[in-house]
Amino acid sequence: MHIVEMRSDSIERQNEDARLQALAAAEILDTEPESCFDAITRLAAEYFQADTVLLSFADESRVWVKSSWGESIREMPRHGSVFEMVIRDGAPVIVPDVSVEPRLTGKRMTLRRLEVASFAGVPVRAPGGEILGTLSIFGGLPRRRMAVDELHMLESLADMVSSQLELRRMRKVFTSKGPIAPQVDISAVGAWPTRSDLRHALDQRQFLLYYQPEVELATRKIIGLEALIRWVHPERGLVPPMDFIPMAEECGLILPIGDWGLEEACGQIQQWCADDLGYRSLRVCVNLSARQFAREGLADHVEALLRRFGISSRQLGLEMTESSLITDTNTAMEVLGSLRRLGVSLLMDDFGTGYSSLHHLHRYPFDVLKIDRSFVSRMTDGEQPLQIVKTIIELARALGMDVVAEGIETREQYTLLQELGCRYGQGYLFARPMSAEAVGELLRLPGRLLPEPAEAGQPC
Ligand code: C2E
Ligand code: MG
Ligand code: MG
Q: Would the pTM of this model clear 0.85, i.e. be above it?
């Protein structure tokens, strides 16, 4: 008996050592609070209509609250705290009514001071499985028993915290080796293109829109198209947007170029609908950059275009990245609000690559979230990247948003995404970006159904 106890003691000690190491590696205790944590606690509070939500982490003696919603409390010391209970059980702890739970009566439970009738705490884990922290909700929902899907939602939110920690770690690795998404340093671009090159291209009508199909994954039906700009340069050939959009943004020409793109896409929608009224169910999405938001009257401009081309707002989608919203959040909020009222779809592009994705997701009225290609491509690398995609999908679902996975290149990614419940996707596996004429051919396929893609693991 004595030996068994000693063994279990030493196992606990080992687990605790591993946990503290993981905690130190995550650099969570002595860093500034992050807005994404606030977004998670707020989401949890809203979803569960909770009185208080805590995101906490603990070392051996005390609990560190990294974000709290509702009544302001400090959970310390560690012993007798929710954290302690979660770590002891290694699993969610759900207490529908504290007053009738014998092991919680008395002074052990610090949070009793709140006189909450109930709480639920779920673990936030490191990639190795060690418990780093807990996400706990008090009051609200658990006055009754928690349904299984509600527990899953709470666990997803806790996984989202893990994902954000993992994202932060990856960002560090990437920033030491190069950025996570290709970001162009204007100073490094060199002399080309100059402002006058771009001005000339605009005057000479050298820009062109390519279109890439967006499909419903279950059927491979084309449900929409993303318009992607190209520069048909007389000497350099087809120039990709990342080679000139940053410069266009820098020198302000992104505004006329962006206007051209919107108008061109609307004209194309009109033309497709003239060919076949069935195409009215297609949504054509146009990418917008930061500067286009900073400008007053974007919604009026879009409305005028819709009228002029006689197209419905459901036929147009506008994609923007988080970074384009950060520069002036109040204006972004106003502009997005008026676009939403107009009825056009708002898509958050490259989700996960920004610095506080969740914060923005929660704050702005997006109806579609596009999972960045970097996550899709890493999905098959292991449990953690897969978990990130899974939690993004679950979170979007809980927020009533559609999810589009970007950059699907292999059958394996395609199958996994479907298993995770992702409904829509785009990528080379289905179709590359192509000219309006070429995409017109695909639209004429019976039922707009794309054929079965190439075999598993073969990038197209
Ligand atoms: P984005 O909006 O995230 O567009 C998706 C990019 O991923 C496109 O690159 C597309 O060609 C590429 N892509 C799609 N499927 C796959 C795949 O399976 N594998 C790989 N490796 N790549 C895939 P593209 O056309 O070079 O555009 C790059 C970015 O340029 C776009 O990223 C968007 O942010 C920006 N952009 C494109 N057109 C416009 C525009 O008209 N205005 C503005 N402001 N930005 C634009
Ligand atoms: Mg896009
Ligand atoms: Mg994207």
A: no
Within 8 A by CB and 6+ apart from 14, the residues are: none
Q: Exposed, middle or buried, 32 (CB in 10 Å: 0-12/13-18/19+)? A: exposed
Question: What number of CA atoms fall less than 13 Å from residue 288's CA on the CB side?
Answer: 30
**What is the predicted pLDDT for the residue at 203?**
96
Contact, 426 vs 226, CB < 8 A? yes
Alpha-carbon torsion, ordered 431, 438, 197, 350, to 10 deg: -30
Enumerate the domain spans of the chain.
Answer: 2-173, 199-448
Tokens of residue 261, six digits: 């793109």
CATH number of 2-173: 3.30.450.40
The answer to whether the CB of 147 falls within 8 A of the CB of 58 is no
Give the chain's residues under pLDDT 50. Answer: 1, 105-110, 112-113, 177-189, 456-460
Ligand of minimum distance to the alpha carbon of 261: 1
**Structural tokens at position 39:** 């977004």
Which tokens is 46 given? 């809203």
Closest ligand 1 atom, residue 254 Cα: 44
The whole-number pLDDT of residue 171 equals 60
Protein residue with least CA distance to atom 42, ligand 1 = 287
Instruction: Look up residue 138 and give its two tokens.
Output: 């008090």
Tell me how far apart the alpha carbons of residues 119 and 305 are, in angstroms, rounded to a whole number.
52
CATH label, 199-448, candidates 3.40.50.300, 1.10.10.920, 3.20.20.450, 3.30.70.20:
3.20.20.450
Nearest-atom number in ligand 1 for the CA of 429 is 18
pLDDT of the residue at 1: 46
Maximum C-alpha span of the chain? 87
- Give the distance (Å) from ligand 3 centre to CA of residue 406: 6
Q: What is the pLDDT of residue 177?
A: 46
Q: How far is the CA of 372 from the centre of ligand 2 (A)?
A: 9
